Amino acid sequence: MLSKSAQYAIRATLLMAAEPELNHGAAEIAGRISAPPNYMGKLLKLLAECGVLESTRGAGGGFRLAKDPREIRLYDIVEPIDKVSRWTKCFLGMGGCQPDHPCPIHPIWMPIREQYLNLLTGKTIADIPADPKRFEGFRAAFSLTKEEG
Question: How far apart are CA 93 and CA 87, in angstroms?
Answer without folding.
Answer: 11
